[in-house]
Specification:
alpha/beta; Rossmann fold; 7-stranded parallel β-sheet; globular
């Protein structure tokens, strides 16, 4: 387990699934956690579980698509902890729809949540990270869909490929401040969002997606969280601008 003692991490979408797994793993490594979550009812559970680990935590309800709410989340983090060392841009969503049937609103929703949101978060948090002079780490949650897409997934794939490009470009901008920017590209992970996506697909297609994992199982939130904790730690001090695939071997296809 990497040592993140004394660090403060913001994790967006930390109320369930991958985000909650990331928050818990970073807390186990010693970090205090800012839980950013759109659904109010999900916040208290993550905060309570972090506190059981003897780490400090606050929860802030926010919508990653809203600049003002993003700025408020960052302001609350600074007010409570006075520093931001780690930013994990995890909040995301997917609408499974053929491109020809997709509305403007559905396209915009996916781009705004999955790509504009990380942009807002980075732009808001980075001035504080830069001013501190302590360096830091940003980890964006992309998706293997940015490499290997699937029918009805065009908007999600485009947004997640954009996240990987944003990661590389931003890493080059902030390297001089000793801030590293990387991304993790999950494959199929056993979360509520995945089951929503699979439920919207024809059964044969969803079975083929799950059955196409060379390691023969769905991933767990902890599989992604372990990669994030590594990238956020000093053990990854010479890694920036990169994307790590955590997809059970699907990228080999």
């Amino acid at each position: 387990m990497p040592n993140l003692s004394g660090k403060v991490a913001i994790v967006t979408g930390a109320g369930q699934g991958i985000g909650k797994g990331i928050a818990m793993t970073l807390a186990k490594a010693g970090a205090d956690i800012v839980v950013g979550e759109m659904v109010q009812d999900r916040i208290a559970g993550t905060v309570a579980e972090v506190e059981k680990l003897q780490r400090k935590a606050i929860g802030v309800q926010f919508d990653v698509r809203d600049r003002g709410q993003v700025d408020n989340l960052v302001a609350e983090a600074m007010k409570k902890f006075g520093r931001i060392d780690i930013l994990v841009n995890n909040a995301g969503n997917d609408i499974v729809r053929d491109l020809v049937d997709m509305t403007d609103e559905e396209w915009d929703f996916q781009i705004n949540v999955n790509l504009r949101g990380p942009f807002y978060m980075c732009r808001s948090a980075l001035p504080h990270m830069i001013k501190s002079g302590n360096g830091g780490a940003i980890v964006n949650i992309a998706s293997i869909a940015g490499y290997i897409t699937y029918p009805k997934g065009a908007a999600y794939a485009a947004a997640k490929a954009g996240v990987m490009a944003l990661t590389r470009a931003l890493a080059s901008e902030v390297a001089k401040h000793k801030i590293r920017v990387n991304s993790v590209a999950p494959g199929p992970i056993d979360t509520p969002l995945l089951h929503e996506v699979l439920g919207a697909m024809p059964k044969a297609q969803s079975s083929a997606l799950v059955g196409g994992v060379p390691l023969g199982r769905l991933g767990l939130p902890e599989d992604i969280a372990n990669a994030v904790a590594f990238l956020a730690s000093e053990e990854a001090s010479y890694i920036t601008g990169d994307t790590i695939c955590v997809g059970g071997g699907m990228y080999m296809h």
